[in-house]
Amino acid sequence: MAAEEEAGADALSVREVQQLVRRKDELEAQIKACYAVLEGQKGVGMNEPLVDAEGYPRADVDVYQVRAARHNIICKQFCPKKSSFTGAELN
Q: Residue ranges of the Nas2 N-terminal domain (predicted)?
């Protein structure tokens, strides 16, 4: 009987699971929006250089916007396990 009570205390409720799924969907939508920003900047992805052959910042892209989008993608894709998708560390 005590083992059943312990298992019940550790189990997630349906409402908690639904909240986690909603948060996961929100994070995925935010990541998709950040990728759209990168595509809007001449198709710059996560690994293309932001400097030209001479080492100067590229004039054809908004370097700040690309760096911010890359940063947000990295943070949201690799959120710490301790957050449990609450997003507390992301805000």
A: 17-77
